[in-house]
Inverse folding.
């Protein structure tokens, strides 16, 4: 964590002395670990009464979007510090609780430490798939260090417009960085494999539709079709609502309109995508976990 270059921000911070641009120091920090039933069905499982995705939400974030719905942890830093072996133990606790997978949410800025925890977990017999759930704003080099340890990649493809990426996430390089990262993820795990209704390996790409199509979801779908094929599994998300600092940006300071989501769904279908998930357009904070409950 000295001279940190883990994420594309390449801030160079000595995180043992001061936080990096991700807001985090040199120690793992986790806000919440729980069985979660709000993920895609192949991750959460077919029954809301049993199983669930074993989600571990990390504090801090290297992208820090102005509309972040998890801002209490991504920017506020809510959470508790853990040692590497504590994180490994948390994975086994979730497995014993019936989790269908270990779902690591926003782990990018802790990649070397999470890698250590995964190595320990694998060595000690972790038997369920590992999901890397990220913004896709990460370096190819960091992702290569995870090869063989991650079974399922679950990246966002948030922006295909560098101006929007700059305005809402201070990351004008997001489109090129995320596309390179997703290509590396696909190289490692390939297309999604589902057995008995549960994801076992592969790639699911999430696209959050922003008001006014600010992130150019249509161009994201075009890119996926051209570079990975229309058999790629897509999760087209309609759950945007204005959170955190969205009120400072009038064009996104509203909920998504059903007609906006319908247009993106129609574009996805026109391109010929065969696999994936769609949502009802939602404007409720019910999609966001209660991070104040801690380890549940």
């Amino acid at each position: 964590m000295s001279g940190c270059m883990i994420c594309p921000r390449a801030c160079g911070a000595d995180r043992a002395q001061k936080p990096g641009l991700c807001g985090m120091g040199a120690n793992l920090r986790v806000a919440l670990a729980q069985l979660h039933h709000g993920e895609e069905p192949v991750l959460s499982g077919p029954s809301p009464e049993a199983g669930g995705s074993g989600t571990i939400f990390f504090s801090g974030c290297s992208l820090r979007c102005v509309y972040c719905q998890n801002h209490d942890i991504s920017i506020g830093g809510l959470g508790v510090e853990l040692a590497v072996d504590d994180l490994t133990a948390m994975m086994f606790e979730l497995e014993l609780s019936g989790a269908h997978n270990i779902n690591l949410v926003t782990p990018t800025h802790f990649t070397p430490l999470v890698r250590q925890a995964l190595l320990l977990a694998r060595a000690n017999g972790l038997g369920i798939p590992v999901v890397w759930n990220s913004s896709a704003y990460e370096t190819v080099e960091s992702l290569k260090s995870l090869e063989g340890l991650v079974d399922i990649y679950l990246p966002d493809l948030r922006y295909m417009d560098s101006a929007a990426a700059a305005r809402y996430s201070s990351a004008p390089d997001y489109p090129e960085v995320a596309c390179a990262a997703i290509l590396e993820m696909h190289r490692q795990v390939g297309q999604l494999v589902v057995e008995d209704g549960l994801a076992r390996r592969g790639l699911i790409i999430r696209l959050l539709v922003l008001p006014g199509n600010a992130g150019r979801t249509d161009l994201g779908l075009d890119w996926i079709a051209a570079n990975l094929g229309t058999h790629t599994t897509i999760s087209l998300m309609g759950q945007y609502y204005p959170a955190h600092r969205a009120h400072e940006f009038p064009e996104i300071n509203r909920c998504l309109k059903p007609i906006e989501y319908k247009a993106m769904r129609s574009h996805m279908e026109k391109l010929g995508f065969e696999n994936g998930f769609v949502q009802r357009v939602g404007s409720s904070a019910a999609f966001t976990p209660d991070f104040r409950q801690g380890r549940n």
User: Anything to note?
Assistant: The two ends are 29 Å apart (CA to CA). Residues 46 and 187 are 28 Å apart (CA to CA). The chain is about 30% helix and 20% strand. Strands lie at 28-36, 53-58, 80-82, 102-105, 130-134, 152-155, 193-195, 198-208, 233-237, 275-277.
